């Protein structure tokens, strides 16, 4: 099948036209291969491309693809990345904010489900969720580490229990101030200089769970959809980044 046929299907699922994003969502580089093997990854970089080529991929499907719209500057590291894709006849697809925000297949909804939380309401590109009964904070952190494959967590803890949680995968630290009085715990993938003291003043547990670690879920879900719908071979290529 063609990459454009895959794009039609994934656009129906993710509805990218609903988002004002930093990039074009969908096919970013159109290759010349029929698509049989799809390499899944968090970010479009040289290490990911090389591993995908070694595996025999026809399509690269990532969360962080080519950022920017309506521009053309092909030089340096960016030229080398694109060159490797084109010379190998590959296609590149990227879905950014639509893949964070999707209520079933997105990064945030997937983390919430894995933690056993009940999804409550959207918040920015993430969600607020809750437990019916409070959970000891240390037990919650152990649960989160297991969900994220033992990812090292950066934590600022100001509540002994967890019940109402906001999850924003990737770079969500700036949204902390908007959560006052809404949650007792905030999970995201980055930290700012002011985060620790602001979390203390708001009495919100702040957990930096890593940008990469919080954004592996969505592309894996898309891969499973493509496998089930079209019988495509899929492989998640882990280019781990502790940040």
From TrEMBL:
Single annotated GO MF: metal ion binding
- Write out the residues that bind a divalent metal cation 2: 64, 215
Q: Which GO terms describe its cellular component?
A: cytoplasm
Which keywords, in A-to-Z order, does the entry hold? Metal-binding
Pfam family, any one: DUF34_NIF3
Q: Which domain of life is it from?
A: Bacteria
What positions does the entry give for a divalent metal cation 1 binding?
Answer: 63, 100, 211
Q: Which Gene3D superfamilies match?
A: NIF3 (NGG1p interacting factor 3)-like
State if Metal-binding is listed as a keyword.
Answer: yes
Question: Which family, according to UniProt?
Answer: Belongs to the GTP cyclohydrolase I type 2/NIF3 family.
Matching entries from NCBIfam families are given as: YbgI_SA1388
Q: What is this protein called?
A: Dinuclear metal center protein
The protein's organism comes out as Kosmotoga pacifica
